[in-house]
Amino acid sequence: MIFSRTLLKRHSVLPGFDLALGFTLLYLSFIVLIPLAAAFLKTFTMTWPAFWAAVSSPRVLASYRLTFGASFAAALVNAFFGLIIAWVLVRYEFPFKRLVDALVDLPFALPTAVAGIALTGLYAGNGWIGQWLARVGIKVSFTPLGVFVALTFIGLPFVVRTLQPIIEDIQKELEEAAATLGANRRQTFTRVLFPILTPALLTGFALAFARALGEYGSVIFIAGNMPMVSEITPLLIITKLEQYDYVGATAIAVVMLVAAFAMLLAINLLQAWTRKRQGR
Amino acid sequence: MPHIPAFAAVSRTGLNLIVGTLLFASTAIAQAAGPALLNVSYDVAREFYKDYNAAFIKQWKKTTNEDLSINQSHGGSSKQARAVIDGLEADVVTMNQSSDIDAIATRAKLLPVDWAKRLPNNSAPTTSTTVILVRKGNPKGIKDWSDLAKPGVSVVIPNPKITGNGRYTYVAAWGALVKGGATPAQVRETVQKIFANVPVFDGGGRAATTTFAQRNIGDALATFESEVNLIKSEFGDNFDVVYPQWSILAENPVAVIDKVVDKKGTRQQAEAYLKYLWSDEAQEIAAKHQLRPRSAALLAKYAKDFPANKTFTIDEAFGGWSNAQKEHFDDGAIYDQIILAIKK
Fold first, then answer.
1. pTM of the entire structure?
2. Interface residues of chain A, partner chain B, Cβ below 8 Å
3. Cβ-Cβ contacts under 8 Å for B213 (sequence gap 6 or more)
């Protein structure tokens, strides 16, 4: 439906639909489709039982659970706190606001290995934060919890940066109107503001989630990489490559790709649905 | 889009293609006017080759009056080998495990499979051995591999599935226990107990060092002798080195990549570069970096850095790396069985 609407659109600043779509397809092909298609083709050299064995051994299954579970949890936490941060950064004035704003982008820019090493140090049993947590019996570094911490760190900017422009667009009058119509603060948030934010929040969540799925550099330092416990799926891909088992590695990669694509698609559909429900 | 499969079939995988191109581009930029060699090497050889390259460039200028430049690429040994297989144009590879050069020979056919016979000493100009680093004063009284299997001892070993350092530790312990007269079942049980005592499987030798030395995790760290001085200078002299009664002789093999040097016309330089590794000057540089020189005279000169311990090679104990890989480290092989048994 969206497609047909685009087709009907005649006037555009860009040079014509045909040319623009051509560029889109060409660019996507080179950057995304061809590399991914190559991964798929590589797995076609496997027999079905070999493929199944590679992607469903207990160790690989344990890594799926950790990777998808920790990524989901991290994205969820980021969605919550990212919303608060974005709100604060847009709506309030405070000293060093620009600095705080810039800090949000740091996880984007920092080499992931640096982030991993820093977080591991902080949360290790003798680290600044880790020693206090250790006293109450919480271990972070070298446990699945550490994986979650690293994934939360790298995912934060995605939520904040997707929400900020949307919050900026919400006019103060909207809240005032809600108030004059008798809505209390909670109602104003849940009935007026939150529905406006939902699509962007879902996008931010999806981006943070997708980013976390593929993360390797930072997690590898903090995870401890205990088999069956804190091995992430990308590590198992590297493990296969280490045996020069390109095919086995791509098999696991394909499973991740399909799963990630299915989830992103679901989130996109959910987002389209919420938009439609709001009549926009 | 019918052109996609055809294109994809030509490339190995798209990812490799992209990585290869990027690496290639970055090395191409670094090339100077004169001939340039690219030495693709393992991670912890950085410091040694920095010094050696300077020495060789000087030597080459003196003998041929040619300005040579040498580019280095360092990383995990197998990762580097894969980069060469996927098209990184290395004139020479200098690794810490012969299986990585074997992989280049068998998979990409860039050099003959009997490459190791082309230079003396199995084509390995230097060696090292796996030792056990313990806390100062050795509070847990660790003297040999079997002590690492005791309950209450914790030992940091990098992940054998993805690091050469970890694999060397595994084969060192295994081979030493066999030399000590244990039955195969006992060997396996002890190695399993050792790995049950590992709190963190780091993704690299240096990461394991950080875990042990900086984060204070573990009573012992298994690592190469060549890393010990670096660890002490970096983290203070808070450690003792334990030489197990038996350990592995880790050979650091080197090879010219024939197809690359013939294409680039750098065979003469590349062969001289590797051959000079056996010169007294190079062997002394190696000794200073705590790599065991092959030269008996220099080994004697630096005897206090290299205590005489009993070592065995991978060929003696396991029939070569490819056998060890198949029997122990491949998916589902003995190492995986041990690890999964621990988790149950």
1. 0.81
2. 25, 29, 33-39, 41-42, 57-59, 117, 120-121, 124-127, 141-142, 220-221, 224-229, 235, 238-246, 248, 250
3. B221, B231, B234, B235, B238, B239
